[in-house]
Amino acid sequence: MTTAPLFIALEGGDGSGKSTQSHLLRDWLTARGREVVLTREPGGTDLGRTLRREVLHGEDLDPRTEALLYAADRAHHVNTLVRPALARGAVVLTDRYIDSSVAYQGAGRGLGRDEIRELSLWATDGLLPALTIVLDLDAATAAARRGGEPDRLEREPSAFHEEVRATFLSLAAADPVRYAVLDASLPADEVHRAVVERVEPLLGAAR
């Protein structure tokens, strides 16, 4: 009997704790004998790392170019890393996925939520996570948590980040079965326990 594949995305604003929670969840799953592929967008592949550097730290980009670069990274990421891992029964954890583009480029940049979602669905041939964990945190607290030199998106004003937050919450409210919204202001171990409560029922064996 082979293990069932599982695709999970972690979403939320910069500073909400996605990296911390993805690593904690990876360790929890690994301790239970699962193969876990931990990745991120952009930057989960060699091409993705190049695109990440350019889109976040390179020259200024107009919103449509930015959106298309994220979609190109996502298409390559899914085709070369995510789908092969799922095909062999792994758990794939991705730090950001389609909803980040919907929130940041669709809502924040004003390109249209539906248009950006359709672009990403085309790029990924319709692949959606079984569960999307939204780590919810207000923009001011998230900004205070971030360290280092801010990237292009992190430099946007508070109103931009609040619009991104509102979009994540709106997406989750529209599909509560496939989303889990968690209070990211809580201590990391409490958030992790809440993550595990949502993930554990999804684990099982494939026929």
TrEMBL record:
It holds the Pfam family Thymidylate_kin. The keyword Lipid biosynthesis does not apply. ATP binds at G12, G13, D14, G15, S16, G17, K18, S19. Its EC number is 2.7.4.9. GO terms for molecular function: dTMP kinase activity. Keywords: ATP-binding, Kinase, Nucleotide biosynthesis, Nucleotide-binding, Transferase. Transmembrane segments: none annotated. It is an enzyme of class 2 (transferase). InterPro entries: P-loop_NTPase (IPR027417), Thymidylate_kin-like_dom (IPR039430), Thymidylate_kin_CS (IPR018095), Thymidylate_kinase (IPR018094). It catalyses: dTMP + ATP = dTDP + ADP. Residues 10-194 form the Thymidylate kinase-like domain. Belongs to the thymidylate kinase family. Phosphorylation of dTMP to form dTDP in both de novo and salvage pathways of dTTP synthesis. HAMAP family: Thymidylate_kinase. This is Thymidylate kinase. The lineage of its organism: Bacteria, Bacillati, Actinomycetota, Actinomycetes, Micrococcales. The gene is tmk.
